[in-house]
Amino acid sequence: MAIEFAGREAVDPFGLKDEDGYFWLKGNLHSHTTNSDGAVEPQVRVDGYVGQGYDYLCLSDHHRITRVDTVMAPDDFVLIQGAELHPDNPFGGQGHHFVCLNLDDDIDAKRMAPQHVIDQVRAQGGQAWLAHPHWSSVNILRDTLRLDGLSGIEVFNSVCECMGRGESSVHWDDWMEQEHKIYPMLANDDLHSDPADPNSGRFDYYRGWTKVRVKERTPEAILEALASGASYGSSGPDIHSISVERNAQGVAVATIRCSEAQRIYGVCSTYGAQFYDPKGTFEEATFALRKGADWVRFEVVGPDGSKAWSNPIDLTAD
Ligand SMILES: [Zn+2]
Ligand SMILES: [Zn+2]
User: Fold this and answer.
1) Which residues contact 90 (CB under 8 A, 6 or more apart)?
2) C-alpha 204: how far from its chain's center?
3) Opening angle at CA 233, ends 230 and 236, nearest 5
4) Is 288 helix (H, G, I), strand (E, B) or coil?
């Protein structure tokens, strides 16, 4: 059965060529300032990410928009306006956290039903992403399945990682399994602290980012790349290319080029597969995937245990 992609047609970022004008931008879409419970002013937050070589940022304060015209940034740095909204969870679990991008008007999401918030975000042309469900103790079957119109999932969150619940990959897989639909991901910092404060000491900054494949440095191009899956997330490694082809026996075989890796997981809708080299780390891998899988997504594990997450690839098309 053909698999549906959430929202719109999926775009393979590794099929978008340099010679056609495409390039990668690195960004973080989840951060907090003194406009909510963050430790630094919005300008300091922007300056921090500019100084770290990021290309784009969202100041996603809780419950309110920090407007991009209140801060200064270099011309080639892209600010995406948004907020983290917290509607009720009427389905029994803890409250939802949605990272909402491309908002113009504040939404008073407190005590609002989650579907109502998603609908209002979309009515503004925005995107609502399911933030850190592992950290929130959000259960996909109980709390998320009845919602329609979420753009995807935050698979990695640096701050939550420091508290043992940073990775929501099982929630991601479960959601796609339950809905028979592919969702793209974000990897984010969710930075609240002041990296310049020697006592913050939590290492919860500049560790989660999403790279998008675009032709323009604009909010519109970045948002389109995120929603269509022309992206990958990382806490360390780079992914240079992914291709999946059928061999003569009809088995899907993946070839991945990446920065130095110790292992690659091929997480399939049916079980999983892996590649490692007993001789040591590697920068290219070719390995067979599980038979009968509807989709596969890849996790590249760097020498230090950090990871990169590809978006899922539809295997039902051929
Ligand atoms: Zn949150
Ligand atoms: Zn947050």
Assistant:
1) 113, 114
2) 16
3) 140
4) strand
Measured in Å, how far apart are the chain's first and last C-alpha atoms?
Answer: 11
Alpha carbon of 60 to ligand 2 centroid (Å): 7
Cα(224) to ligand 1 centroid in Å equals: 23
Residues near ligand 1 ion, CB 5 Å cutoff: 97, 131
- Ligand 2 ion local residues (Cβ < 5 A): 84, 190
Q: Helix, strand or coil for residue 70?
A: helix
The C-alpha atoms of residue 283 and residue 239 are separated, in whole angstroms, by 9
Q: Which residues, at least 6 apart from 181, have a Cβ–Cβ distance to it below 8 Å?
A: 3, 4, 5, 6
| Mean of all residue pLDDT scores within the chain | 95
What's the Cα-to-Cα distance from 263 to each of 237, 239, 260, 300, rounded to whole Å? 11, 13, 9, 6
**In the block, which residue shows the tokens 């600010």?**
79
Distance, CA of 42 to CA of 120 (rounded, Å): 25
Claim: this prediction has a pTM higher than 0.85: yes
Query: Per-residue pLDDT for 200 more than 80?
Result: no
